[in-house]
Write a structure and sequence with these properties.
The protein is α/β, with parallel strands linked by helices. It has two domains: 1-26 and 271-299, no CATH class; 31-268, TIM Barrel, CATH 3.20.20. The protein has helices at 2-9, 15-22, 31-42, 60-79, 99-115, 130-142, 159-165, 191-207, 219-232, 249-257, 272-282, 285-294; strands at residues 47-52, 84-88, 120-122, 148-153, 172-176, 211-215, 239-244, 262-268. An eight-stranded parallel beta barrel has the order 1-2-3-4-5-6-7-8, surrounded by seven helices. β4 (148-153), α7 and β5 (172-176) form a beta-alpha-beta unit. α2 crosses α11.
Amino acid sequence: MLNQIIAKLLPFFPKSIVYVFAKKYISGPKLEDAVRVTKELMSIKGCSTIDVLGEFVTTREAANHETEMCLKVVDAIDENKLDSYLSIKPTSVGLGIDYEFGYNNIKKLVSYCQSKGIRARLDMENSPYTDATLKTYRQLREEGFDNVGWVLQAYMKRSVQDVLDHIQYKPNVRLCKGIYNESPEIAYKDREEIRNNYKQLLRLMLDNQYYVAIATHDEPLIQDALIELKRRNLSQNEYEFQMLLGVREERRNQLLKEGHRLRVYVPFGEDWFGYSTRRLKENPQMVNHIIKSILGLNK
């Protein structure tokens, strides 16, 4: 209850106070901040995916601006020889305004990435955009772009079918629990149900030659994945772990020392305030996690 109250009140706090909660999880307002953080990760054999903060834009002008910012990210990755790729929020580049408009912006980004030898990933937003995002992925693949992946949310009841529907592509997919507050008609709400579905999805994808980015901070799921990877005798280029910036850094570093490939989500942008407050409202439990991290209790 206290977490929910804090999360709802945060948007009304001064930005300087919200930044205390946010700064650990955001590289900074500028692209050079994301470059700096990625280089720091590379120094410990990590890698990143860079995201321009901003989503659910409502005008074509704003969507085109976000698209241009994403192109600058690709240039920065290329020019700095970063071990990184571009994360694309479909609604930030117009998919929620008009499908063809949004698709053309996404295609422009994926094509530019391909020309630089860089991957891109379509982030998965809330349920109104799931079908359009997966349609975008399939259309890109059918047009010959194999440098693009997508995200699967384990709390969605449709996710098993989504895996089965995309086997032919042998996709590169980030598997996460999911953060949006979805209806119980379409999403699992119980923690153990979500964990069990995560485990099922991991096995289903590995069985069907998906490249899985195992995105979780949940220790039982990390342990389960490690057991499954060892059982299958997978090489280090057949999977990766992923974590959010600033979360469970000690565990992150341990996985890196053990030789696992691990990628960190590195967001940046002037919209850090909106991003942070939205995320905290969508997932009030993060407040408790953040407070523990600030106090050094979350290892």
